[in-house]
Write a structure and sequence with these properties.
It is a single chain. The protein is α+β, with helices and mostly antiparallel strands. The protein has a domain at 164-345: Kinesin motor domain (Kinesin), CATH 3.40.850.10. It contains 10 helices and 17 strands. Helix 4 crosses helix 5 (166-181) and helix 5 packs across helix 7 (211-225). It has helices at 4-12, 14-26, 34-46, 61-110, 166-181, 198-202, 211-225, 286-298, 348-351, 355-379, and strands at residues 116-118, 134-136, 141-147, 150-155, 158-160, 186-190, 204-205, 208-209, 230-240, 243-246, 264-267, 273-276, 281-283, 302-303, 311-312, 315-324, 334-341. It binds adenosine-5'-triphosphate (ATP). Residues 120-121, 192, 194-200, 308, 310-312, 343-344 line the site of adenosine-5'-triphosphate (ATP). Adenosine-5'-triphosphate is lined by residues 120-121, 192, 194-200, 308, 310-312, 343-344. One of its GO terms (molecular function) is microtubule motor activity.
Length: 388
């Protein structure tokens, strides 16, 4: 807080205040970010043009000369800072290009498809006797105990042990989020048996949000910190019993309610996938995106089964479409980042499901096996990938 005396002093020497602020910002060069450039631009915008309003009436010739000198100095400082801004903006762009290249090389080296295994903790009331023991051997291998003298080891790009936090999981995903802002299509999905923690990992719980919420936060923050203007749209759907359902469109509850338009998957001319009639809602910040996400989650089909109290009975897909018009160096003008929380594979004998639960389980198993074929073909780089 300034005292009234301080305030008088302040109002008497606005020129010093401006130059001091600018100098302090210049001394801050090591933290060059677009926010820094914006701050300097804002200060310059608020500076009086050529110091014109600093003193409205010259008192005498000496005073006039001294003011003119000060105005010239200020003018020169402003010109110098303008030059610095141009140079720094070019420097930031150059660093961004380098960062993009390094990130791409890094992701290429790690492989286009990366598979992580997260072992979830076993809660006390769960039946230990019937559960097969899974243990992390190291950061990339897990061992599954099949019988007393029989075990099998599986390798992954990364293994998360039962104590791993949501933060640790997200840290591995974050480079993908960055590359999505650079214009690359990306997809993060959770796959596994029912009750193994897919929804916990993707959606999380209120006190410990999962990958989707953390990714949204990261992407909007990085977009604000960048030099570019992005346009985002948010969509969310589920595949239930083989049918697509828009989770952002109210579903009819009464006979008189309008039926929402039918969704259908189309391949666009560039080989990408489009879903006809899927609602895409423009979002400008993370709060809007998370509100829609919460809304969509409420409409998801879940039910209690023998294996999981809140089992997903469908596959849930969230799409953030990213457009950037002022960055020709991006991979694409518009790209998509998909998050998928798949329904869990289940052994019908074990779940003892019947009726609708059984139909849901069968539909989930069937689609997961088709997905397995697709991933296998992609990994083997087969010329035919059985998408349909
Ligand atoms: N890493 C974890 N830490 C603590 N609790 C977890 C963890 N993973 C899962 N859980 C808990 O285990 C239970 C089952 O998890 P979740 O619903 O995420 O399984 P799922 O794989 O999505 O199952 P389904 O395929 O049936 O939908 C939930 O109560 C969840 O909170």
């Amino acid at each position: 807080m300034l005292s009234s005396e301080d305030k008088t002093m302040e109002s008497r020497k606005p020129v010093h205040k401006l130059s001091e602020t600018i100098h302090s910002l210049l001394g801050w060069k090591s933290h060059v970010t677009s926010n820094w450039v914006k701050s300097v631009c804002d200060i310059m915008k608020s500076a009086p043009p050529d110091g014109a309003s600093i003193i409205s009436k010259p008192i005498n010739g000496v005073m006039e000369n001294s003011m003119k000198k000060k105005n010239d100095e200020l003018h020169n400082s402003v010109l110098k800072i303008e030059d610095e801004i141009v140079a720094l903006t070019a420097y930031i762009n150059q660093l961004n290009t380098q960062r993009r290249q390094v990130l791409n090389e890094f992701l290429d080296l790690r492989g286009n498809i990366r598979v992580f295994c997260r072992i979830r903790p076993i809660a006390v009331p769960e039946n230990f006797g019937q559960l097969k023991a899974v243990a992390a051997l190291d950061s990339s291998n897990v061992v599954l105990k099949l019988a007393e003298n029989k075990s099998k080891t599986y390798s992954f790009d990364k293994v998360f042990h039962p104590g791993s936090s949501q933060d640790e999981v997200f840290a591995e995903v974050e480079p993908v989020i960055k590359s999505a802002l650079d214009g690359y299509n990306a997809c993060i999905f959770a796959y596994g048996q029912t009750g193994t923690g897919k929804s916990f990992t993707m959606e999380g719980i209120p006190q410990s949000p999962g990958v989707v919420a953390r990714s949204m936060e990261a992407i909007f923050k990085q977009a604000v910190d960048s030099n570019h203007v992005y346009v985002f749209t948010f969509s969310m759907l589920e595949i239930y019993l083989g049918n697509l359902k828009d989770l952002l469109v109210p579903q009819p509850t009464k006979v008189m309610d309008p039926t929402p338009p039918c969704l259908s998957i189309q391949t666009d001319p560039k080989g990408g996938i489009d879903i006809d009639n899927l609602v895409a809602i423009p979002v400008t910040d993370v709060n809007q995106a998370l509100k829609l996400y919460k809304l969509g989650c409420r409409f998801r089909s879940t039910a209690s089964t023998n294996s999981n109290k809140t089992s997903s009975r469908s596959h849930c897909l969230i799409c953030l479409s990213i457009t950037c018009l002022d960055a020709p160096e991006r991979r694409r003008e518009t790209n998509k980042l998909w998050f998928v929380d798949l329904g869990g594979s289940e052994r019908v004998l074990k779940t003892k499901a019947s009726g609708r639960r059984l139909d849901e389980g069968k539909a989930i198993n069937l689609s997961l096996s088709a997905l397995g074929d697709v991933i296998h073909a992609l990994q083997k780089k087969n010329c035919h990938v059985p998408y349909r």
